[in-house]
Hints:
Helix content is 52%, strand content 11%. It is an alpha/beta fold.
Amino acid sequence: MENQKQQKTVQNKKQKKWSFRNDPGSIFLIIFTAVIMALMARSCAMNMNGTGLLPNGQPAQQPVELTFSDVLRRADEIKTMEIRGNDASGTLTDGTPYNATITYDPELLSKIADTGATISIDTSKTWVDYLGTWVPILMGLFFIWWIFRGFKGAAGGIGRTLTQQNPTKITTGKTKTTFSDVAGIDSEKQELMEIVDFLKNKEKFQAVGARVPRGILLSGEPGTGKTLLARAIAGEANVPFFAASGSDFSGIIVGLGVAKIKEIFDMAKRNAPCILFIDEIDAIGQRRSTHSYNDQDREQTLNQLLIEMDGFSNDTGIIVIGATNRADMLDPALLRPGRFDRQVYIDLPDLAGRREILDLYAKKVKVSSDVNLQDLARGTTGFSGADLENLLNEAALLAVRNGRTEIAPVDVEEARDKILMGPRKVRKMRPEDIKLTAYHEAGHAFVSVMYSDITDPIHKATIIPRGRALGMVQHLPIDDKVSMTIAEVRANLAIALAGRSAEEVFFGSEKITTGAESDIAMATRLARYSITTAGLSEKVGLAAINQVNNFGNRTALENASEKTAEIVDAEVRAWLDAAHADAKRLLSKNKETVRRLAEELLARETLTGDEIKEIIHGKHASKQTKKSAEKINNKKVKKDATK
C-alpha cells in the first residue's frame, strides 16, 4: 500500500511539473517582457546620450533641448549636427551640446550647411530597431498558432483550454443538510419527496415504467429557502451535490459559457446519481428574442443547456434543480416536459410556518422562556425564512450588547422594529414637533382601538424615531388573512388617515404637517386597489382596471376610457374623504381621551396595546405610569435648566 501511495505521489508530481509545452502562454509572456525591457533600455540609452564623463574624468555638460523652431532660428549657431530619423544632436559654436527633434527638410539642411556646420546622417539600424519591428509580427503569428492549435485538438479543445484558465466555481461533495433542517414549507417538501425516493430506490419506479422528473424548478421570493431545499434533497438522498450559479457560465470570452455547461454536466454524469443545482438560472435561461443580436453568446449557452438536459436517459440518476426569483423571464423551451418537468413555487411562510421556522432557529440560540414565539410569529407577517433567522440573530446581538446571556423579549421587540422601520435615530427635535408626533400617533392608536372588532388588534404605539418615521403604531394579526371585507377596507382607511385628522382636531388646519405622507400613500393604494381590481365600488362596478406603470411616469389605467378614469379618480377621492371625515368625527367626540393618550406617549415614549386599551376605556393610568411620567418631566426640566 505504501509503495502504491509513493507511486501515485510521483505520478502526481510528474503531472504537476511545469513545462513550456504545457503552458505556451508563458512563452508569450516572456517574449513580451523581453521586448518591453529592450525598448526601455533603448530609451534609457538615448536619454543617457551626452551625459557621460569627459576623458579627464570630469562630468560632461548637459545638452540643451531645442525645438524645431529653435533650430530654424539659431541655424547660424550650429557647429555640428548628427541626424538619426527625427532626432538630431550635436554642438553649437560655443561648444554647448544640444538635442533636437526635427523634420527632414533638404532646404533646412542646406541652410545649416551654408553656415559652415558639419552635418552627418545615420541611416543604419541597430538590433533594437530590428527587435521592435519583427517581434510584434512574430508575437501575432505565435498567438494565431496557439488559437488554431486548440481547434486542432480533440472536440472542444479550445473550450477545454478556456475552461482551465477560467474554472467554474462548483461546490461539490455530499451535504449534511436534510429535511429536518427545513421548516415552514411542508407542502413543498412533500412535493419533492418523490425525488428523494427515486434517488434511493429507482428500481420500483422502473418496474412500473414511471419517469421521474429530470429537472425541478424552484421559484419564489428571496429568502424562502430554495437553495436550502436543494441541499436538503441531496442530503436526504445521500448523493453528491454539485452547485453553481447562472452567472458562472457567462464571461467576456465568446464560447466560454458553452464549454462550462459541458464541463459541469460531464462532471455530473461521472458521479451519477447526483443533484446538479444551478442557482439564479435566469442569468442564462432568459427568454430568447427574435430581434436581439446583442446577446448571442448567452443564447448559445442556453442552447447548450437545453441540449444537455434533453440528452439525459431516464435512468441516469441526474436530477437538475434550478432556482430563480423570476420564473416569468425563463425561456419556454426550458420549462417544457423533459427538461424542467416540475415547477415548485415556494411561498412566504404562513403563521404556522413562521412558528415552525422560529422554533427551528430558536434551538441554535439561547432564548429566554419569557419570549413568546407565537406572538413573534403573529407580528412577522410577510417575513421569509431568512428574515426570521436574521431577526433572531439581531436579537442575539442586542442581548450580547446589553450584557445579557440569553435573548429577552425587549431584544426581540427591538430587533423587529429595527428590521421593519430601521435603526433607532437620535434626533434633536423641537418640543412642538415631538408633541405633534405624539398626537399624530395617538390618533392612529385611538381609531385602531375603536375598530378593533374588525381589524387587527393594536400591539404598541411609539414616538421613538426610526429610519424616516418619527413614530409608529404596530398591529399584531391574530392569523394570516387572504382577503378583506369592504368594512375592513374602510376601517383601515380611517386608521391610516387618523394621524392627519388628529393634527387638524388638536392643532388646526393651519398647522398640519407632511408627516402623514406615507399614511396618505398607503391609503390611496388600498382605495385604488379596492376600486379598480377588487371590484368593491358600486360606481365602477366589477370591471377589472389594471394599473400600468410606464417607467416612472404617471400611473395610467389600462382597459379604461378617459371617462372611466375620471370616475375612478373621483371614487378614490370620495373613499378617502369619507375615511378622513370618519376619523375626525371619532377623535372630535373623544378629545379628552385622545389627549390623555398623547400625554402618556409624551411621558413614556412607548405604550403597549394593553396600556392603550386601559387608557381609552376610561381607566386611569397606573401609579407606575404617573411616577415614570414625573421622572421624565423632571429630567426634561433639569436639561432645560442646564441649557
